[in-house]
Amino acid sequence: MLSSYLKVKPEIEEALKKGKPVVALESTIISHGMPYPENIKMAKEVERIVRENGAVPATIAILNGVLTVGLNEEELELLGNSEGVLKASRRDLPFIVAKELNGATTVAATMIIAAMAGIKVFATGGTGGVHRHAQETFDISADLQELANTNVAVVCAGAKSILDIGLTLEYLETQGVPVVGFGTDEFPAFYTRKSGFKVDYRVDSEVELAKALKAKWDMGLKGGLVVGNPIPYEYEMNYDDINNAITEALVEADKKGIKGKEATPFLLSKVKEITKGKSLESNIQLVYNNAKLAAKLALELSRL
Question: Which of 69, 127, 251, 302 qualifies as a FRET site for 264, CA 20 to 30 Å off?
Answer without folding.
Answer: 69
